[in-house]
Amino acid sequence: MSGHSKWNNIKHRKAKGDAVRGKIFTKIGREIAVAVKSGGSDPASNSRLWDIIAKARANNMPNDNITRSIKKAAGELGNINYEEVVYEGYGVGGVAVIVECLTDNKNRTAGDIRHLFDKSGGAMGTAGCVSFMFDLKGIVAVNKKDGLDDDEMMMAALDLGADDFNSSDGQYEILCPPAAVSAVRKGFENLGMIVESAETQRVPQNTVSLDAETAEKIQKMIERFDDNDDVQEVYHNAELPEDENDE
User: Fold this and answer.
1) What is the pLDDT of residues 72-82, one digit of tens each?
2) CATH number of the domain at 134-204, out of 3.40.50.1980, 1.10.10.10, 3.40.50.2300, 3.30.70.980?
């Protein structure tokens, strides 16, 4: 994903090398499967699917892969049912961690995630043990366009239901309620702008400052979670060096 969202350190994502890119495509394919199952295979009438397709394109997923994933999810090329499961716990330094998964075997995934928490010096907790520390936010990243005024874009975002608007080099970052993500995305697309991503993310209410050694342990823990095929997203409230997560 291009651009440098202020939340890149919170929702860790890697896109370096073909092997990692392939993992990202696999994870997005699972998201497509769940979206199709819940809302149908037509993105025009399934806003969740539309947003995931936009996410896929932002990650340079080929159109053939996207189409194949949709057909597979619709049962044309076989059918695997994935369930959404969320695990919560703590890492070293008291860092709150939320791991979102899509799995076809909850028992396997629960065991794997618990093992990764333990291996990283943390502990998996019960449902709700840290999620109260995070807010669900819609975050839309839009590439800037020459000739458009930042103030006008901010007003457009607010009119579409945005709560906050940030301008950085080459990109706008718009925060909104989760229910407004599709409206914000469509509104900026109608203005002829390129939307890099439009997602719902878990944003921490407060962050934890760590020393270098503890930060490195948290980064390794996140990488272990990322390497698990069932893991879709990892959220945390640690302050990590920006250059570690830049893409």
Assistant:
1) 888 765 567 78
2) 3.30.70.980
